[in-house]
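Need residues for this backbone.
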């Protein structure tokens, strides 16, 4: 059975696009991976990390940048694919054969939809697991002690509570010469200074401690606080001096990588899939509403009409009497504000009573303001938790949808520009992706800080780029010379002629 030309065209387009997509995806992952490693280079350098741990870190880091690399790879691959077709006149030949642009890109649209579905599946099922492992490893690396490498002629502070100065080193014999050690483990005022002609530092067998051997030296110890604690007086001995031929000091220095428990991140938004995020949002929203209702009831019960919980008996009687008279006036249809005018009541008081009334009013207003601030802080924790989960929930959809939008930007742009290779397409892709990243990051910060609703902030980039994709697709389908310099030059000549005729 022979294939029809249409099916061959589909296979041809898919083969060109998918091969370029895989290549550009690897390039984009590499670029984003280098940027991610640069942000965490301090957690890796100087820690003496094993190669297996570094490989694990890079594997998790690659998984974390894949969702962001997919839209950029789709944009670049579609630009290069249709740019090559236009530059080699293949796109013109297809249109001359009666094949429309929408028919040409139809197989690629289905392929990009599959990529979008795969991006959502990756973000929803694989990314939460890798994010937990990645950040657990990063936190563990941050707590790991740095690799012991004392430089010459500089103070080394890689050992907690100590500063070590070495003038010369002998790597062959593992000896250090002209040493000066400051010991701050007991505090700055109780510091101990040690000088030694030579010494060496070795690890214990369990790698949990350092053994510091010092030879032919002296130590100076500040006894100011020790003397005060012992005698209870301010009179003290300034310091103690000790000479030694050999001295040994045991220092805590755990050089092993102690991994954190992954359960620490179990309730974080990065560790949950879509259904878990929805469940957490609903649960915490219910708690937030219940807490707000409880705070409102407490304020009404304890603050209004002078009925505070910790009021005196006289105030309670006054409040009860006021409430009874108010109820009586309401039943009789009287206006209580006219019967008991606050200004008239305040004016009838003596000066001392006025000052006392103002003082009590200010104290109650201040207490009410403090209570409102405290309630806002309590509710803000719930609301921040909800916002982070809502942002993560929308992100799983926006990154997948961005792949489709970038295809409808890259494909028509390539068809209009008709420039293949890695020159013009790369420049356009970088500019478009920077534009997308700025808008997306702006919306993310607006949503995170509760300046915008979460859905508006996270979908802002899609709302901006989708009309651009529709416009470019329409221009490419109608063979518009949108980016053709010759067409713009002709248009300018026409405008100049019209202006010249008008002036005459």
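Answer:
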């Amino acid at each position: 059975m022979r294939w029809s030309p249409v099916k061959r065209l589909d296979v041809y387009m898919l083969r060109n696009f998918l091969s370029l997509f895989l290549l550009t995806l690897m390039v984009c992952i590499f670029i984003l991976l280098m940027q991610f490693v640069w942000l965490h280079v301090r957690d890796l350098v100087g820690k003496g990390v094993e190669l297996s741990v570094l490989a694990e870190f890079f594997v998790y880091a690659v998984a974390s940048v894949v969702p962001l690399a997919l839209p950029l790879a789709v944009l670049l691959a579609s630009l290069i694919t249709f740019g090559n077709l236009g530059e080699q006149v293949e796109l013109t030949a297809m249109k001359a054969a009666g094949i429309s642009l929408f028919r040409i890109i139809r197989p690629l649209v289905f392929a990009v939809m599959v990529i979008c579905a795969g991006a959502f599946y990756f973000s929803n099922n694989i990314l939460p697991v890798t994010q937990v492992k990645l950040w657990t490893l990063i936190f563990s690396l941050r707590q790991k002690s740095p690799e012991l490498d004392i430089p010459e002629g500089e103070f080394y502070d890689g050992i907690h509570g100590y500063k070590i100065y070495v003038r010369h080193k002998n790597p062959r014999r593992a000896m250090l010469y002209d040493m000066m050690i400051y010991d701050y483990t007991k505090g700055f005022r109780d510091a101990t200074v040690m000088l030694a002609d030579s010494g060496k530092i070795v690890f214990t067998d369990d790698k949990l401690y350092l053994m510091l051997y010092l030879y032919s030296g002296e130590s100076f110890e500040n006894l100011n606080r020790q003397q005060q604690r012992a005698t209870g007086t301010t009179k003290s001995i300034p310091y103690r001096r000790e000479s030694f031929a050999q001295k040994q000091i045991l220092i805590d220095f755990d050089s092993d990588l102690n991994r954190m428990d992954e359960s620490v991140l179990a309730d974080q938004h990065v560790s949950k899939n879509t259904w878990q995020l929805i469940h957490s949002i609903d649960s915490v929203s219910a708690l937030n509403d219940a807490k707000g209702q409880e705070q409102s009831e407490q304020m009404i019960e304890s603050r209004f009409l002078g009925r505070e919980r910790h009021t005196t008996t006289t105030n309670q009687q006054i409040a009860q009497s006021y409430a009874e008279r108010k109820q009586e006036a309401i039943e009789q249809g009287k206006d209580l504000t006219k019967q008991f005018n606050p200004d008239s009541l305040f004016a009838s008081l003596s000066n001392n009573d006025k000052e006392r009334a103002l003082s009590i009013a200010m104290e109650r207003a201040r207490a009410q303001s403090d209570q409102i601030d405290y309630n806002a802080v309590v509710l803000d924790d719930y609301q921040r938790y909800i916002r982070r989960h809502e942002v993560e929930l929308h992100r799983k959809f926006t990154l997948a949808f961005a792949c489709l939008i970038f295809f409808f930007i890259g494909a028509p742009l390539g068809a209009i520009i008709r420039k293949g290779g890695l020159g013009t397409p790369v420049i356009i892709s970088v500019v478009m992706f920077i534009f997308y990243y700025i808008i997306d990051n702006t919306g993310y910060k607006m949503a995170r800080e509760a300046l915008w609703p979460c859905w508006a902030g996270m979908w802002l980039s899609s709302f901006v780029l989708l009309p651009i994709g529709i416009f470019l697709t329409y221009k490419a389908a109608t063979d518009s010379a949108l980016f053709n310099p010759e067409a713009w030059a002709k248009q300018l000549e026409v405008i100049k002629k019209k202006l010249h005729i008008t002036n005459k």
